User: Which sequence fits this backbone?
């Protein structure tokens, strides 16, 4: 099986390089780690052995994340939302309606977000060598202390500019490999990124936290880790498996992070039967989905309608509705209900929802109106195209606390847009009527 042709999928304004390997009975999207190169990767024995082994049983779609490999370079680092959307773009370009996903290392969080946001398109999920969060937190002691991680980011810049440093780094993640394999991995990483991009990716990954997303996943899931992985403790995978409903955790003997040819021979017998069984199940109607909920309403509508009179108020309300709907269409929002002077909508990405909220403020101000907007992201129940559940109730309560001209968001929304460049102002802890506990809220300062 030789190297397949490199193709391109358009994801927004960015072109994503991908390849199609094999002609198996089901589709599998292979999501690589921090840096890849779809063409040079075939020179790496472990990488090529894994893709060839999977391609004996599936039609494998492998791609370079935006900013890496043969995909378009981008300023800074892409967000999880943008990266996850690249999976959709590759599937669409390859004519894949539904596929299994296999996420490797840093490819795990984006695979998790996509599976939760688009359950109707994911038949199964395999997560190898990844984690739900990067940094230490009181409720996530597995993470790396921020000071140590930042020091690692500073040192990572030197990996691509200091002779031999990248090879030494690869060797630490592949201790039993021969020199030829180490050099092949290092060459792929060197051509797949740049010093500045490598540093930006490290800063973006520092902010990753998808723990709130895990309970929403409905696809059959297998989590795999090498017991003595030098770049990430196996406990990260145990955490993933415990918090994804019905997930299976497989811990295999090994001391690598980058899969060698020898490890691939032990990995495939675990992964392939799981995928073959999982994809035979019919595609169920999704009963839950990760969604970002937006609520908006006009500030002072009662007084304004009394001031204008019924006829003029109806005209102004129609202008408001037209502008809101125009922005929902622009940012891929789905209108779910219009309640008098307010809107209820859902998005498959929180950054798009925030930017839509800001655009709505600007659009309605042109007709002399102000609105308040609240956002929350979480698990929603799906029924006949509508969504319901606690996440919807939280979104409504957050909106009720927003001020005129403000986009107010929950902590979950803020966590999911890490690396987006969106700035927030902490509005402190709040009690939301009818919702247990206290919730930290943030006002969008700029986006």
Assistant:
């Amino acid at each position: 099986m030789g190297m397949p042709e490199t193709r391109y999928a358009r994801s927004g304004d960015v072109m994503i390089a991908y390849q199609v390997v094999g002609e198996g009975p089901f589709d599998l999207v292979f999501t690589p780690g921090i840096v890849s190169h779809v063409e040079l990767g075939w020179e790496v024995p472990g990488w090529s052995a894994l893709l060839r082994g999977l391609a004996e049983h599936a039609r494998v779609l492998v791609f370079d994340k935006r900013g890496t490999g043969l995909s378009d370079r981008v300023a800074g680092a892409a967000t999880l939302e943008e990266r996850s959307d690249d999976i959709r773009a590759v599937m669409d370009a390859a004519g894949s309606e539904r596929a299994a996903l296999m996420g490797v290392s840093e490819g795990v969080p984006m695979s998790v977000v996509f599976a939760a946001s688009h359950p109707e398109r994911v038949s199964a999920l395999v997560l190898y060598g990844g984690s739900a969060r990067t940094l230490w937190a009181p409720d996530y002691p597995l993470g790396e202390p921020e000071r140590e991680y930042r020091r690692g980011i500073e040192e990572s810049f030197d990996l691509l500019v200091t002779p031999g440093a990248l090879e030494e780094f690869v060797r630490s993640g592949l201790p039993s490999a021969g020199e030829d394999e180490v050099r092949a991995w290092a060459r792929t990483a060197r051509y797949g990124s740049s010093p500045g991009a490598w540093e930006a990716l490290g800063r973006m990954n520092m902010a990753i936290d998808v723990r709130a997303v895990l309970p929403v996943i409905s696809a059959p899931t297998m989590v795999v880790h090498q017991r003595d992985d030098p770049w990430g403790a196996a406990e990260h995978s145990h955490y993933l498996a415990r918090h994804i409903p019905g997930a299976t955790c497989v811990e295999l003997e090994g001391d690598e992070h980058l899969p060698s040819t020898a490890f691939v021979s032990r990995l495939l017998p675990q992964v392939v039967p799981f995928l073959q069984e999982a994809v035979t199940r019919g595609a169920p109607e999704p009963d839950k989905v990760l969604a970002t909920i937006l609520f908006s309403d006009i500030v002072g509508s009662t007084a304004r309608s009394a001031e204008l009179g019924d006829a003029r108020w109806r005209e102004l309300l129609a202008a408001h509705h037209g502008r809101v709907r125009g922005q929902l269409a622009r940012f891929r929002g789905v209108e779910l209900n219009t309640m008098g002077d307010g809107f209820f909508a859902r998005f498959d990405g929180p950054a798009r929802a925030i930017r839509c909220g800001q655009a709505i403020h600007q659009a309605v101000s042109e007709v002399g109106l102000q609105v308040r907007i609240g956002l929350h992201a979480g698990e929603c129940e799906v029924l006949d195209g509508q969504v319901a559940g606690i996440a919807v109730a939280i979104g409504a309560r957050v909106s009720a606390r927003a001020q005129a001209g403000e986009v107010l968001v929950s902590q979950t929304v803020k966590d999911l847009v890490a690396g987006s460049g969106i700035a927030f102002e902490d509005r402190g802890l709040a009690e939301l009527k009818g919702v247990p506990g206290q919730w930290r809220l943030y006002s969008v300062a700029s986006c």
